[in-house]
Design goal:
The complex is a heterodimer of chains A (about 325) and B (about 575).
Chain A: E1 5-6, H1 9-28, E2 41-51, H2 55-81, E3 87-93, E4 101-102, E5 105-114, E6 117-131, E7 135-143, E8 146-177, E9 180-209, E10 212-245, E11 248-261, E12 265-272, E13 275-282, E14 284-292, E15 295-303, E16 312-317, E17 320-321, E18 324-334
Antiparallel strand pairs in A: 1-6, 2-4, 2-5, 2-18, 3-7, 5-6, 6-8, 7-8, 8-9, 9-10, 10-11, 10-12, 11-17, 11-18, 12-13, 14-15, 14-16
Chain B: H1 2-19, E1 29-35, E2 39-43, E3 50-54, E4 57-65, E5 76-80, E6 100-101, E7 114-115, E8 125-129, E9 138-140, H2 147-153, H3 161-178, E10 187-192, H4 195-207, E11 219-220, H5 222-235, H6 246-249, E12 255-259, H7 265-277, H8 282-290, H9 302-309, H10 323-335, H11 338-345, E13 363-364, H12 383-397, H13 406-410, H14 425-432, H15 436-439, H16 449-459, E14 463-466, E15 468-469, H17 480-485, E16 491-497, E17 509-514, E18 527-531, E19 534-535, H18 542-545, H19 547-560
Parallel strand pairs in B: 5-8, 5-10, 10-12, 12-14, 14-18, 15-19
Antiparallel strand pairs in B: 1-4, 2-3, 2-11, 4-8, 4-9, 6-7, 9-13, 16-17, 17-18
Amino acid sequence: MRARRDSCLKPVRRILLLLLAALACGGVSSAQDPEEPSGRWSLEVFDGFAGLNPADFNLLADSDEGLRAFLYDDLLQDLTARGEILSWNSQSDNDFPRIRWALPFGARLRFRVLGGLSLSVGFRRISLDRSADPSFVTTRELDTNYSQQEAVTYGEYTLAVAGSIPQIGIHLRVVRRGDFGLEIYTLGGPLYADCRFTRDRIYNWNETRQGNTYTVFESRSRLDEEGEGVGLAVEAGLRLNLRLYGRLSGFFEGGWAYQVVESLSGPGQETRSGETVSWEGEWEVREEVLQMPWGEYRYRFPSNLQPRPFTTVSSDPFSLDLSGLQLRLGLAFRF
Amino acid sequence: MKGKNLCAAGGVFLILWMAAGPGSVLANEAGFITIEPVDFYFQAGGWLERLPLRSSEARLWYVYQAADDRPETRPLFVFFNGGPGSSTSSGLLSMYTSEFTLDNTKPEGGSGFITNPFSWTRLGNLLHIDARQSGFSYSLMPGVEDMGARFREFNAQNFNTFFDGADFIRLLLRFFDGHPELRDNPVVIVGESYGGGRATAMLHLLLNYSAYGDGREVYQDPALSAELQEHFERIFPAYQGTVVPPEVIAGQFGHQVLIQPTLSSRYQSEVAQEMFIRPGSVIHQLAEDAGVVFEPGYYEIPFTFVYYVAGRDLYNFSQPSDWLFGYFFNAAERLRSTASLARITGVDVTGIPEMYAAARTNAYRVYDASDPDTQTAPAVLDHDDIQFRHLSRMEAARGSDGSGDLETVFGTLQPWDRYFISSNSAANYAFHYYSVALARGYDVHYSEPRFGRMFLKNTAFVDTFVTNAAFDLVIYSPAIPPALARHVEILEQVVHDRNPRAGEARPGLIELHYRGDAFPDVSAPGVREIRFPYYAESCHAVSLTEPQALFEDVSEWLAAHGLDLHSQGGIR
């Protein structure tokens, strides 16, 4: 078992750097009235947390999880019910990863137009790679001296999303009390997003007969699919300002962002039995129906495989939805 | 010395091969056709979930015998036995289909091959093929000395009925490449026993070839699909760049002769079992003859009773146990003699380079070189124990699994290699038990109803002849029509018509009344007839017990179904 590998170290490093920069800037600045003309410009940097759930993209993990239950547990239950095996058990480690949050960061240049009204231009980046090592083993006992074990492990199972958002903003101060200020804001701009899925799957079938274990079959397949597209990002929220020291102030802002890309396309590649196939295609949410002797399993998953396989029974548009709660902590340096 | 022999033999073979080039007279030949490693996969409706497999290189043995008269105008009969894992060489090739045969008037067929008075070369060209790892056919692999690696070879990547059918099609296409005169001739598929399952897979692959490359079928073999497209475009030039429909393909692959076949095997077994345990059944009659009582509840399968208690041959219940095996073993012994092998093939077999030990250092036939019994699973034996494993065990016990003079002529093989295996139990068990495809739940065993549906779809396009042998319990002929009738999703009615018809010496017909919506991609087939003649003296191997009757019936049936082989003009 290995721990999940999230790309959370980079954001932590970013926050530390941000704090160091803040201390440095504060140290060289002098205390001034924030309303003075020389303070109409400010440069802001921020980092934070974004809650999100790209549901279409997460269908990849949902479908793999469902397939595991249908193809292994359901099969073994059926074999048991039909008396073809004596018993079975399964053991799984680690869940299939899903995208649930991200750590955005960015910067903006802000200009106070008049009074409490400011305009800004900025850039925000949101990204997350979620990798995990799900694995499971099933053992079926055919006879007291004869059992079969199937093991599925993943050399890599990664869901990754990223978005770059150049944006303009309108900020309106609504409350000012001493060193504190409260603002409402709205931000908007294009969303340049991309996603990536990698599944490196290793299948092993072993048999144990009269105490001897044989590897009967092993296979490995790797699937890589990528996509990118342009959508819209709009956000609205509240912001709390706190003057810290001299020209430096801190802020905490939180809101809800609509961040959706409706159309993505990109390359894909699949390697099975050493043979690699490549393609370029648009992402869709496709539906397939597995028909096995013990039942039928219907599942949906996103893919950009071209040409669309005959196994696809229906397809819907795919959207990469990075919308959700945004919480950010930042520093502003006025000049 | 061996090297010199090999070179000389290779030279002779090369000269013969060159002589047999385009425009040459078709002549008898025998040898191996190499099938390259093939990537294929199983899928059940999901691109995200597939079972990718890669086969090993194989050298498949074939014997070609040219038609007696104007072979280039005659159809090509493709013969194979069943098992799976059973040799065609010691089966149909040696049993009254080719130019020479065992003698059915003598115990176990006598001491040598005699001239066959009913040689099917009078009807057309004959191509007898040994399936992968059966008869003379062998496979190749790197690291062949590793027993574990050899064990892994006997699995679904080399042994499943779809791939088995694909093997035979590949061989056929390679054979056409070497014999362009025959490329567009009609092909008549002749399969015995499990050969019915193989024939079903072959014809379904041929008639629906595009679906086997584009994800619509459970078995996906894109390379074969592309190869067939190329072949059909040559044969049917009007279909350049488009999918050739099955009714057109049936113009070449439109006839099948099935001798005691598995068609919808599970239903056949279920119906037969029901028939066997009824009062007054054939099993009860055998018990009465033997002076014992058959208690169905005591025997899980009636075959155990028939074989061990009644002492009758399952394949010919008019004879004592293992009667038919005696013919197979005898044929195998004859085939292990270069003189007999040359006689039955009509070829100087010393000119076949791939026979020599030096050419097969990476070859294997078994995974455990020391004990043939360990080829099988100890825990899962049932009726196959009697039907198949017993065969190879008996062959070994009888000492007839040696190499004859083949080792003297062709050299000493590696311990895991054999010149000839009549019944390869390791291959057989790979079809039934050691199959990752079956373990993963794919319903690709030939006993599954899937194969019955495939057979019925084939029959909508392919004229079909099935034997009805009186003494066969393994493929119990009375069970065939009711077994097919269980496919209510395809058939409205099945009628077994036993009334004599004009021109038919042995009556018998199965009428298949198809449902209008039987197949979504095929317009209503209506009613199709399967010729189902009754062979009152026959066992499982009908060609052995009633060779003349079978020959005449097939000849007449083909004439009535578009292949008038008696006319001067041949087939063209």
